[in-house]
Amino acid sequence: MTPANSREVILTRIREAQKYKPVKLPPEPDWLSNSYKEPALPLYQCFVNELEAVNGQCMLVQTEEEAISKVATMIEEEQISSLFCRDTEIQNLFQAQNVAFRSDPSDFNDMQAGVTRCEYLIARTGSVMVSSAHLSGRQMNVFPPIHIVLAKESQLVPYLEDAYIAMEAKYGMHLPSMISLITGPSRTADIEKTLVLGAHGPKKLWVILVKDKTATL
Question: Quick one: which of 39, 42, 36 has its CA closest to 153?
Fold first, then answer.
């Protein structure tokens, strides 16, 4: 049998098979539907639940002054002697309540806890979105053994895509050179499948959320 005849035989068999066994295509996905379930709880409670599920902590306060008082209480309970902060707006809040902090670059390596702001909080995943646009820079998101994030309620968004849309609206064509997500303390299970916190970054992540939507944090 020549190659041409062989080819025709194969094609004939395929045509015959299709008559009796039509090809079933998979159903077309609904590309417009949301891949995630809508948060059943208020955004704040959803964020708290998701963050605590990955060993983070979150507390809701009414004012900026109460937020700073929480920081002071936490560093006292943890016996932290070196609280580092680069953000001048947060420094002003600390100074107003006589909370000791360090900001000199020579003290950077000795810090036990660091305080920063953030861009947005993603309720559905318990993630904190940070960027290089803030005065704290990049290092403060990964270097402190304890990372304290001061945020406001209006920074809560349901999904990651909402945060990206908000970032584009906020910065336009001048997006920060670094945009990253923090989901709980740094962790790894590479070593004998044992979970280790603080492997590549902060061992503890605390988020203090100011309920006052007019807060300037």
Answer: 42
DSSP state of 133: T
Tokens of 79: 């016996």
pLDDT tens track for 2-44: 556 788 888 888 777 767 666 677 888 887 777 767 777 788 9
β-pairing, 127-131 with 179-182? antiparallel
Going from the N-terminus, what domains does the chain have, and what CATH number goes with each? 39-210 (3.40.50.10420)
Q: What is the pLDDT of residues 176-205, one digit of tens each?
A: 999 999 998 865 655 555 545 545 568 899
Q: How far is CA 63 from the centre of its chain?
A: 23
Helix (H, G, I), strand (E, B) or coil at 156: strand
How far, in Å, CA of 109 to CA of 84, rounded?
10
Nearest Cα neighbor of 61 from 217, 206, 207, 208 is 208
Note whether 61 and 67 are within 8 A (CB).
yes
The C-alpha atoms of residue 91 and residue 85 are separated, in whole angstroms, by 7
Amino acid occupying residue 31: W
Q: What is the dihedral of CA 132, 136, 140, 144, to 10 degrees?
A: -160
Largest Cα span, the chain: 96
**Three-state secondary structure call for residue 202:** coil
Structure tokens at 123: 């309720």
